[in-house]
């Protein structure tokens, strides 16, 4: 199995890329595994998702060795199958309420950058590096890279990274907004687990609404967006999530949002 998937009893889903010998390169089987993991997260009462990669690298992008075995129309059809599955996975993770945390070590290239920037919270080990890589082999971006990257680093920086394929070390990645923060390599796993667990214990419905509002706000007009904010906060205030949050605040106690089951 090239993508590991498990949900613990607290609702934390762990999605693990398991091709360390290939730098967790994404072949068709891996892309389909990610899609199945996203679908499982949509079916189950998941409260947070932690995405990791085994071995020295997080994900070096598409599996070029697999792609090189094909040519012409067969290669085109294969790439469509790979990207369809991978893009379905990205859509699936974006659609659920549960926030997504990514822990990046070593190399993140091509589609690996797409997986990293698609996360709501992206932690990078201090030995991590990011390289777009696509145009270096005569390809154009996939995995949402041409959509996410301009939004997190700006269009000018995005084009610099996409056209020059320069290597971006973890510290610069944090400075330009490509990752949330940098941690020591030997602390990455612990910090990623801690972050994901804290989100698991949070207000899942409010997280989902916030994710959708932020995404919509990047492309929507102010007026309709303010209306959407009003509807969202009103619905949450009347929900079990909002009632628990306010009751805890007024009672001077920590809220227990785990009492409120997430939407499957």
UniProtKB/TrEMBL annotation:
Pfam families membership: ECH_1
Cross-referenced InterPro entries: ClpP/crotonase-like_dom_sf, Enoyl-CoA_hyd/isom_CS, Enoyl-CoA_hydra/iso, Enoyl-CoA_hydra_C, Enoyl-CoA_Hydratase/Isomerase
Family: Belongs to the enoyl-CoA hydratase/isomerase family.
Protein name: Enoyl-CoA hydratase-related protein
The species this protein was found in: Actinoallomurus vinaceus
Upper taxonomic lineage: Bacteria, Bacillati, Actinomycetota, Actinomycetes, Streptosporangiales
């Amino acid at each position: 199995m090239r993508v590991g998937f498990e949900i613990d009893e607290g609702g934390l889903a762990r999605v693990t890329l398991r091709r360390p010998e290939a730098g967790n390169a994404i072949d068709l089987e891996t892309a389909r595994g990610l899609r199945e993991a996203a679908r499982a997260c949509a079916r189950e009462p998941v409260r947070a998702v932690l995405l990791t990669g085994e071995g020295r690298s997080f994900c070096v992008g598409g599996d070029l060795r697999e792609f090189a075995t094909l040519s012409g129309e067969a290669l085109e059809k294969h790439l469509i199958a790979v990207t369809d599955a991978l893009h379905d996975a990205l859509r699936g993770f974006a659609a659920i309420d549960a926030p997504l945390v990514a822990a990046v070590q070593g190399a993140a290239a091509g589609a690996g950058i797409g997986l990293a920037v698609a996360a709501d919270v992206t932690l990078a080990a201090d030995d991590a590096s990011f390289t777009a890589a696509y145009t270096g082999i005569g390809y154009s971006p996939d995995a949402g890279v041409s959509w996410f990257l301009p939004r997190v680093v700006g269009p000018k920086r995005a084009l610099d990274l996409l056209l020059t394929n320069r290597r971006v070390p973890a510290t610069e990645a944090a400075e330009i907004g490509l990752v949330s923060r940098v941690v020591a390599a030997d602390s990455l796993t612990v910090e990623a687990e801690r972050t994901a667990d804290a989100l698991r214990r949070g207000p899942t419905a409010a997280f989902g609404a916030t994710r959708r509002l932020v995404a919509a706000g990047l492309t929507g007009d102010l007026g309709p967006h303010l209306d959407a904010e009003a509807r969202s906060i009103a619905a949450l205030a009347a929900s079990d999530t909002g009632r628990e949050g306010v009751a805890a605040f007024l009672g001077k106690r920590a809220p227990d949002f785990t009492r409120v089951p997430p939407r499957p």
